[in-house]
Amino acid sequence: MYARVEDIGKKIKSMEIRGAGRIGRAAALALKYFAEDFEGNIQGFYEDLDNVKEYLISTRPTAVSLKNAVYYVVNRAKGENVEDLRKSIIKNAEDFIKRSEEALEIIGKYGAGRIPDGATILTHCNSSAALQCIIQAHRDGKKIRVFNTETRPWLQGHITARALAKEGIDVTMIVDSAVRYFMRDVDIVVVGADTIASNGAVINKIGTSQIALAAHEARVPFIVCAETYKFSPETVIGKLVKIEERDPREIANPDDFPGVKFRNPVFDATPPEYIDAIVTEKGVISPYLAYEIIKEVMNVGIEGKED
Ligand code: RI2
Q: N or C: which end of the chain has fewer CB within 10 A?
């Protein structure tokens, strides 16, 4: 494998690079590096491109942002010779990264509109898209406060809490299991997404669906912030989203618990009936419009190929 590609792949796998948007951009960058580093003929280019593509997709199985980023860069590649193909891949990768960053900005603006002045917000894990909305609401002059979950086992909530505090936002970190206890004080839940299925189900960090259930019970609006490349074309043809299960050692050392089994799924699915809105760069939509986003906005059909 190409050294710079492998370096990024390993970082995605180990979660040194994490967050659905970030891993998508990192995969695009890895493809750009491949194009820059390739030496050989056109047949070799296509063969190696295929290997790099499969390798990157294999690094984390759940977030479709990774696959969509790879397809975006690879499926648009055009050229009759290696030099043209190289340029095309580099351009597509740069385009994807730029569009992804612009999408975040827009989502921040749209999402901030959904956050009332004086609101208490609950967020889970560490989502750049969700944070963008919360930070934008604060920058718009709204007085907000945030509860954020620590997010076991990786504790991504620590990153969230620090980022919000740095912005001067009133933030309180709670353990994941305290969500229902505090829900009575919450006005809106704002989370991100790793993958959105064609039926509007949102796959996000483990625990998200429990939070949605608690919000539903307390009649608290639950909104998801996600770029359109987090919608999964494959789900249109009935493919299920694979939920990543990671090493149990991320929870505890099994050697300290003889006879005890561990499970460590890192995502879960929240059904559309618990979701009030999905904030995308193309607008704020009902989760039931997921299919329309996949078919129309992403302009991709099954298997991520362009129509
Ligand atoms: P952004 C993360 O996954 C979290 O589940 C987060 O909610 C989601 O990606 C979206 O993050 P992980 O990589 O793309 O921490 O909004 O497992 O940053």
A: C
Cβ neighbours of residue 222 closer than 8 Å, sequence gap 6 or more: 188, 189, 191, 211, 212, 215, 216, 270, 274, 275, 276
Best of 96, 135, 156, 158 for a ligand 1 pocket test (most atoms within 8 Å of beta carbon): 156
> Contact, 28 vs 72, CB < 8 A?
yes
pLDDT greater than 80 at residue 260:
yes
Q: pLDDT tens digits, residue range 121-155?
A: 999 999 999 999 999 999 999 999 999 999 999 99
Domains and CATH numbers, the chain: 3-104 (1.20.120.420), 105-304 (3.40.50.10470)
Predicted pLDDT of residue 301: 41
Q: For ligand 1, which residues put their CB under 6 angstroms from it?
A: 18-22, 125, 127-129, 156, 191-194, 204-205, 266
